Amino acid sequence: MTRIETETQGNRTDGVRRVNLALQGGGSHGAFTWGVLDRLLQEERLEFEGVSGTSAGAVNALVMATGLARGGREEARRALGQFWMAIAEMHPLAPVKRHPLDVVFGRFGFDLSWSYHWFASFTHLVSPYQWNPLNINPLRDLINKHVDFEKVRSFEKMKFFVSATSVETGRIKVFQRHEMTESALLASTALPMMFHAVEVEGEHFWDGGFVGNPALFPLFYECQSQDIVIVQINPLKREAVPKSIFEIQDRMSEISFNASLASELRAVHFVNRLIQKGALSDGRYHPVLVHMIESETEMRGLGSATKLLIEPSFIKHLYELGHQAAESWLKENFEALGSRSTVDIRSRFLE
């Protein structure tokens, strides 16, 4: 899975590091990724060769691509900011809101929120084909306003990969840059409890997080840079055993949406070890260098349920977390790009 031609190491002689980005999905927690991208776009020492995204990660990728195609890095930063502010402006219409006491005490959570518990119960009992027979999707209008698919398809400076899950086969479908359409992007975001499956060329798709969150293999096969920077927004670990039905469902969702990423990283670790031992020494292979920008403790404290929260203060909070996480990562790990991984895959995903 990690075969990349050896003449393509990805870094330029002027000190600029060329990397690939892997952007996880996670509802409104994608605002964390906005903060990360905003900081990375300010870093002139970084170039992006390919971006693989799922769900909210895919939306972030294509909004960024629209800005880059229109006017470069500053326009990309502006496009991302405008998109997430538009999400926050939809808060008054959101079906899920915090309890007033949580607002007063500054808690981002739904423990006391009757609207969340009602909505979560309802969506697990009634199909979206029943409660939303007209297939109204507010994200569709936002996407069409903030993503210029024609410009994305013609933007040849970067490669883009958007993942969705085939309902019929259960397999991953990776849409590449020339295939980017409204339907392809909506397919990647279609949570089955909330939205109808999205049809693309006769096949139906659900959210890509089930089988690739995000998919790494397109970055191995289609890109030259050996560095992959994963923006991780779904917590890998929880300290306490979930007890309530909602806590259990949240943890099940986190495990499910991290499983495919963990599987791919285990494969990377296996092949990297073979290379180190000389078992793959014919010159066609080199290690894949893995990096991760995250804020595990803070994101774990938010809880999976808050992926439905789109209050302006929450979106801003996530942006700031992401921006700071990227700032810290650049200070600590930039010099490692092109030379070594900064994630211990064995301890994080194997032990």
Q: How would you describe this protein?
A:
- The chain is an alpha/beta fold.
- Helix content is 46%, strand content 13%.
- It contains 14 helices and 8 strands.
- It has helices at 30-42, 56-71, 73-89, 100-104, 114-125, 128-131, 138-146, 149-154, 182-188, 217-222, 245-276, 296-302, 312-333, 345-350; strands spanning 17-23, 46-54, 159-166, 172-176, 198-200, 203-207, 227-231, 289-293.
- Strands 1, 2, 3, 4, 5, 6, 7 and 8 form an 8-stranded mixed beta sheet that branches.
- Helix 1 (30-42) runs parallel beside helix 2 (56-71) and helix 1 packs antiparallel against helix 3.
- The protein is globular.
- It starts with 16 loop residues before the first strand and ends with a helix.
- The model is unreliable at 1-8 (pLDDT under 50).
Write a brief caption for the model.
With 351 residues, the protein is α/β, with parallel strands linked by helices. It has helices at 30-42, 56-71, 73-89, 100-104, 114-125, 128-131, 138-146, 149-154, 182-188, 217-222, 245-276, 296-302, 312-333, 345-350; strands at residues 17-23, 46-54, 159-166, 172-176, 198-200, 203-207, 227-231, 289-293.
Number of helices: 14
For the residues shown, what is the average pLDDT?
Answer: 90
Helix percentage: 40-55%
Report on the biggest sheet. Answer: 8 strands, mixed
Shape: globular
